[in-house]
Design a protein that fits this description.
This protein is of the alpha/beta class. The protein has 2 domains: 234 residues, Aspartate Aminotransferase, domain 2 (3-Layer(aba) Sandwich), CATH 3.40.640.10; 125 residues, Alpha-Beta Complex (Aspartate Aminotransferase, domain 1), CATH 3.90.1150.10. Helix content is 37%, strand content 15%. Strands 1-9-8-5-4-2-3-14 form an 8-stranded mixed sheet, with helices on both faces. A hairpin with a 2-residue loop joins β6 and β7. The relative contact order is 0.18. Bound molecules: pyridoxal-5'-phosphate.
Length: 378
């Protein structure tokens, strides 16, 4: 008998999603607008609070793209971006003809290092160009040191775009990730903590900014009976079908966070007596992670060989795991862009591994994972 595959993070439906999708069909709201879109936005606004205004969009990447447009990023500008992230954080900078300037991580939250951030800002200003925006990420659901980042950003008057794609439900000092920056973004891709099968959202601080985002996301149509345009628009709105899935998912979000966090507890216990490994965890009680993915780090600065051997051992047992994000400044496509830091992200990349973390993993799955891991480190 072959075992079924244990995935890193797979969609986990709560049960009521189809009811909302059915409603969309019954009322013929099969379009990129409708009651589910409005309902989903209201659910998100209620959930993350802080009087936010949410625009549901077709993807997290689209939300970053529009966010940068709203912050006034134009061709020739420079935008600071956390290097240790998924490429979708950085790609929209290039869509706009702007240049990413990459900044290293610190080792406590694995997110943008405030010291390297300030160094980057000062050096770019000295070179004649003040960065137009800062993209800070809450990677793997771990809030970044957002208070320190905002302090620096405010000092130099540079707006922060908060990439909260992996951090819905995570908080810093009890305030939700995605609500700190000038603009926040969320993702509902298939592998995220909740999914609409594909989708995202832009979190705005005012009704006007949200309305501007929706205007741009629906082809920037001016008020007129005919089609009239004074600006370049995009087709980035979320469909009413997808938003229906989102409404159902919002009903189980808190439950899924509890389950993700219990997967993290499971790994902390599993690796308790394994000397070689640290489980990535919150630095202190100010940080509350949704633990979207549970990650481990080999303590020694060894080569990638041993980490890779563990990954392949798990793979042979039908258990998916994945190295941590490869930093953007080490990616072939971004290799000629400026980078500030001291290789913290690079070290994390060579030493780290993400383990199966889904809210839908069973006790049997956990037993299979325990067995393979205990065997490997025996
Ligand atoms: C998933 C993700 C995105 C992009 O979201 P999509 O909805 O897949 O476009 C952006 N940034 C980070 C950190 C992500 O993990």
């Amino acid at each position: 008998m072959t075992n079924s595959k244990i995935w890193l993070s797979s969609p986990h439906m709560g049960g009521t999603e189809q009811k909302y999708v059915q409603e969309a069909f019954d009322t013929n709201w099969v379009a990129p607008l409708g009651p589910n879109v409005t309902g989903f936005e209201q659910d998100l606004e209620r959930y993350i609070g802080e009087s936010t205004h949410v625009a549901a969009l077709s993807s997290g990447t689209a939300a970053i793209h529009l966010g940068l447009v709203l912050l006034g990023v134009k061709a020739g500008d420079e935008v600071i971006c956390q290097s240790f992230t998924f490429s979708a954080s950085a790609n929209p900078i290039v869509y706009l003809g702007a240049t990413p300037v990459f900044v290293d991580s610190e080792s406590e939250t694995w997110n943008i290092c405030p010291v390297a951030l300030e160094e980057a800002i000062l050096d770019r200003i000295a070179k004649g160009k003040k960065p137009k925006a800062i993209i800070a990420v809450h990677l793997y659901g771990m809030p970044c040191k957002i208070d320190e980042v905002l302090k620096i950003a405010n000092q130099y008057e540079i707006p922060v775009l908060e990439d909260s794609a992996e951090a819905l439900g995570s908080t810093f000092k009890r305030k939700h990730c995605g609500t700190f920056g000038s603009i926040g973004i969320l993702s509902f891709n298939g592998n995220k903590i909740i999914t609409t099968s594909g989708g995202g959202a832009l979190v705005a601080k005012s009704k006007e900014i949200k309305e501007k985002a929706v205007f741009l996301a629906t082809q920037a149509r001016d008020q007129a009976p005919h089609y009239q345009h004074s600006e370049i628009g995009y087709n980035y709105r979320l469909s009413n079908i997808s938003a229906g899935i989102g409404r159902g998912q919002m009903e189980v979000l808190d439950k899924h966070i509890v389950l993700r966090r219990s997967m993290h507890t499971f790994y902390q216990e599993l690796f308790q007596n394994i000397e070689e490994i640290n489980v990535f965890k919150e630095p202190n009680s100010n940080f509350y992670s949704n633990h979207w993915l549970s990650c481990i780090l080999f303590k020694n600065e060894t080569t990638e060989t041993r980490r890779e051997r563990l990954r392949v051992t798990l793979e042979n047992e039908q258990i998916e795991s994945r190295p941590l994000w490869k930093p953007m400044h080490l990616q072939p496509v971004f290799k000629d862009h400026p980078y500030y830091g001291n290789n913290t992200a690079k070290s994390l990349f060579t030493r780290g591994l993400c383990l199966p973390s889904g809210s839908n993993l069973t006790n049997e799955d956990k037993e299979r994972i325990s067995k393979v891991i205990n065997n490997f480190f025996k």
